[in-house]
Amino acid sequence: MNIIKYKKAFVLIVLFFLPVLFLLFLYPSKHNYNTLDIIKKNIPELTSILDKDDQNLQLENHLTVLGFLGEMPMEDAILALNLKELVYDKFRGFKRFQVIILVPESAKNQVLLLEKELNQYEYLSYWKFGFGSYKDILSIFQELNTDTALDSTLRTSNVFLIDKERNQRGRFDDRDKSELKKNTPTYGLSSYNCLDVSVLKNKMSEDVRILFTEYRQKRKGNFNSTSRRADDLRGNEKN
């Protein structure tokens, strides 16, 4: 009988502590938590962009991953699949999270093929394609802070992170601790390359998680907007 009691107690303890351990793993600790910098404010709303049902898409009050797949999005299916598996699938259940991919109106048939590929296991409720004219899509892209460029088909392999207030988020200083110690020249992060699996897994996934942590802390009233990376950058500029 005692053995049974001990087993039951052990199971209850495990069931209690597993969710706690999961939360500790999911959210960054205060020691490691570095807020994302606002690298461009007031990204314009997508007023000229419509989805396949001719409905407007909205950045405001959403945490958005914004991408541009050009006239032949099916040819870049690997970009979309990487983004789905390494970022979208992790955050699809979070409130107000969405992926928006902008393409020219001429790409609608291609988008149907790509959607079929993406939705083969389940319908992606928070993944949307937006259609617009060449001029409108180029205008939206030019509002972003980036050193990348769209090609002649309005495509780039990089995606951008836009917060609920329509600010583009990233890093003014993306150096890691070892690079800071070596005084490596400063470089920033304004977008995430979907062809680079390590960038999606180790940087973008972490940055989306950090943004959700920021909003959670704001709701609790204990958010500190100080960014250690920005502080480190200013410190190095003074030295």
Task: Furnish the topology, listing elements before pairings.
Blueprint: H1 2-26, E1 37-40, E2 63-68, H2 77-91, E3 97-104, H3 108-118, E4 127-132, H4 134-142, E5 158-162, E6 168-170, H5 177-181, E7 192-193, H6 197-220, H7 228-238
Parallel strand pairs: 2-3, 3-4
Antiparallel strand pairs: 1-6, 2-5, 5-6, 5-7
Helix pairs in contact: 2-6
Quick overview:
This protein has helices at 2-26, 77-91, 108-118, 134-142, 177-181, 197-220, 228-238; strands at 37-40, 63-68, 97-104, 127-132, 158-162, 168-170, 192-193. It is α/β, with parallel strands linked by helices and 239 residues long.
Give a structural overview.
By secondary structure, this protein is of the alpha/beta class. The protein has a single domain (30-238), classed as Glutaredoxin (3-Layer(aba) Sandwich), CATH 3.40.30.10. It has 7 helices and 7 strands, in the order H-E-E-H-E-H-E-H-E-E-H-E-H-H. The chain has helices at residues 2-26, 77-91, 108-118, 134-142, 177-181, 197-220, 228-238, and strands spanning 37-40, 63-68, 97-104, 127-132, 158-162, 168-170, 192-193. Strands 1, 2, 3, 4, 5, 6 and 7 form a 7-stranded mixed β-sheet that branches. Strand 3, helix 3 (108-118) and strand 4 form a beta-alpha-beta unit. Helix 2 runs parallel beside helix 6 (197-220). The longest helix is centred in the first third of the chain and has 25 residues, at 2-26. The chain is globular. The N and C termini lie far apart (69 Å). The model is unreliable at 27-32 and 226-239 (pLDDT under 50).
